[in-house]
Design goal:
CATH topology: Beta-lactamase
Distance between the termini: 23 Å
Protein name: Asparaginase
Pfam families: Asparaginase_II (PF06089)
Radius of gyration: 20 Å
Order of helices and strands: EEEEHHHHHHHHHEEEHHHEEEHHEEH
Organism: Roseateles saccharophilus
Number of helices: 15
Number of domains: 1
CATH class: Alpha Beta
Number of strands: 12
Oligomer: single chain
Largest sheet: 8 strands, antiparallel
Strand content: 15-25%
Structural class: alpha+beta
């Protein structure tokens, strides 16, 4: 049974407990920390967007089409659908001679409530550009356009169906996941992600290894190592694109730059790279609570970076307020994570 990682307090009493598992691994594969079952496969969902974007740079597509920091950061994003995100994805597609109809991620309303309310008030409809994965999918389309040059096919025709596991683009993405994690994803449990691409269940240990490798380049091919470094630099330069206003990933990477790359995934997953320390992190909250995953990630970052940073502590010990703005409780690391901070 996995240990309790985060507790939710109401007043001074524990109201809820969030169990989970945590792996911290270095680029050689040595385990720095293991809490809970780090060998049980979990679906990392959007936490691995950095890995899925490796072919965008390694293939030469990013260079061929002149992607800037904002566009590369958006390729690693689960964004809030704010105007800057939408315009950046649309601009890249236009440069490819395509539009939003090329995206196969589906239509999603913005998660940023003021943006959503404004659209409704103006009578505007959501499009695939508002989907939190539109940047990642624009990156896939970019890779497909480059590949189409070698086939003689029209780019729009070659792009079609890029989300299917057998498409050339998705085979490159799967190969990048396998290379980074050291796991043959073709033999892993497979599902379909919210944005319609294949998602593979992988052990937390392997996911942490992949992020240690992406932070150091050790264990990656030269092409993937250069791609990981370029993507991390882009995210550090344009962190707003990775999440958006008041989002954990954006705020943390605005504060810490290239020292900490972190990425949330659905159902309580978080992955991170700490290049200076040569470490990768992967955690999963068993009940899928993203709020608890953010708190756990913040606590881990505080422990590894040996910091009392107010921003990180504000998430690891998140104050809980009711609709009147009254403090009614808080989140806090449970003993397993608290002991990590004292190690």
């Amino acid at each position: 049974m996995n240990p309790i990682l985060i507790e939710a307090l109401r007043g001074d009493a524990v109201e809820s407990r969030h169990a989970g598992a945590l792996a911290i691994v270095d680029a050689s594969g040595a385990v720095h920390t293991a809490l809970g079952d780090i060998e049980r496969p979990v679906f990392p969902r959007s936490a691995v967007k950095l890995l899925q974007a490796l072919p965008l740079v390694a293939s030469g597509a990013a260079e061929a089409y002149g992607l800037n920091d904002a566009e590369l950061a958006l390729a690693c994003a689960s964004h809030s659908g704010e105007p800057e995100h939408v315009a950046t994805a649309a601009g890249l597609l236009a440069r490819l001679g395509l539009d939003e109809s090329a995206l196969e991620c589906g239509t999603q309303w913005p998660s940023r409530e003021p943006v959503l309310r404004g659209m409704v008030a103006r009578g505007e409809l959501a499009t695939p550009l508002h989907n939190n994965c539109s940047g990642k999918h624009s990156g896939f389309v970019c890779v497909a356009c480059l590949m189409s040059r070698n086939t003689g096919a029209e780019a729009a025709e070659f792009v079609r169906g890029y989300v299917r596991a057998e498409h050339t683009v998705m085979r490159e993405v799967s190969a990048a996941l396998s290379a980074a994690t050291g796991v043959d994803v073709e033999k892993a449990p497979r599902g379909t992600d919210g944005c319609s691409i294949p998602t593979f269940a992988l052990p937390l240990r392997a996911l942490a290894l992949a992020f240690a490798r992406c932070g150091t380049g050790q264990g990656l091919s030269d092409g993937h190592a250069r791609a990981a470094r370029r993507l991390r630099q882009a995210v550090a330069a344009a962190p707003f694109m990775v999440g958006g206003t008041d989002r954990f990933d954006t705020r943390v990477m605005q504060a810490w730059g290239e020292r900490l790359f972190c990425k949330v995934g659905a159902e309580g997953v978080y992955c991170a790279a700490l290049p200076e320390l040569g470490l990768g992190v992967a955690l999963k909250i068993d009940d899928g609570a993203v709020r608890a995953a953010e708190a756990a990630m913040a606590a881990v970052a505080q422990a590894l970076l040996h910091t009392e940073d107010e921003l990180l502590r504000g998430y690891s010990h998140l104050a809980l307020r009711n609709w009147r703005g009254l403090d009614v409780g808080a989140l806090r690391p449970a003993r397993a994570l608290a002991e990590l901070s004292r190690a």
